[in-house]
Amino acid sequence: MKLTLQTQLLHPPDQVCVLEATTRAFNAAADWLAGEAFARKTANKIALQKLFYRTLRARFSLSAQMAVRCIAQVCEAYKRDKTKRPCFRPFAAIPYDQRLMSFKGLDRVSLLTISGRILVPFIMGSYQSERFTAAKGQFDLVRRKDGKWFLLVTVDLPDGTKIPATDFIGVDLGVANIATDSDGSRYSGASVEACRIRNHDLRRSLQKAAVGRKRRRLRPKNIRRKLKSIAGREARFRKDINHVISKSLVAKAKGTGRGIALEDLKGIRDRTRFRKAQRAKMGGWAFHQLRSFIEYKAKREGVELVLVDPKNTSRECPSCGHIDKANRPSQAEFRCVACGHTGHADVNAARNIRSRARALVNAPKVSERHFGLQAA
Ligand SMILES: [Zn+2]
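A: This is the predicted complex of the input protein with zinc ion.
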């Protein structure tokens, strides 16, 4: 099983020019050489090197090692389909091997460019850092469409290796919406709430009746039985809803190769985002049930579950990061007082949960195995 890992380079602005110039030069050279190879109908590295090595170095300012890599790249592309002249876009990925690059410690890589070696800082997630050691020789330097630079490496993993999620569906649990996910889907609690209110009123009147009868020394057995059955009905109804929601969330996560992120529920009842009345409403058990359903279904389906710090998830602006109570003028509405970003409050909270999980999992981690990179 092949897996491609990517690591973002955190180059300072002045390195962009060098990276761009190097990529352009390499690809211009490759494109020109592809024409020569195609004209001569040869994909022979040694023959092409003999003929064009000097030209590549002089005309495209490639270093010796880059010229060699360039020739290899062209031969490989041409061999794949000899009926076509290979073309190289100006920002096609360019290959880097050990002679062109070396990792310096945990967070910097030295890259050979047309202006000599440059030291570029990079971000590596803990997951990548553990897998990079399995990387063989060649990395690719890639400029993405958004202008960010990445190093890509393809690693071989044993078949069936579980690939930890690097992206998550953030799930916000609430009252108006039992669950809201970071994709914007809301699982309404309206039907549950309607059932609860109906039963609550019924229960109240039955309880009153029971007290009244007690005073009149009548046995309230039938009333107690009735109360019990109402509680049972409500619990079954809530349980059904929780099953439906958890099943749907886990299926979506599995289908899209993501994990699920939830707030750490420890202390959720103390949270200020729930007013007293809401806290009473939540009761606690329903939330714990939904969470435990999500947990066991995720485990059964091999979907990763991550718990994140719930602090200010409903008050933080997902656009600019500003945290303010005033960002949430009403239960359903989010409006950032700093940048004006607006959205559904629960969806925003779910997005914050997602980004916290991503930050948690993809955070650079110092590990011993990471040091193996220096030897690679
Ligand atoms: Zn904002």
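The pocket of zinc ion is lined by residues 317, 319-320, 322, 336, 338-339, 341 (CB under 6 Å). The CA atoms of residues 316 and 323 lie 4 Å apart.
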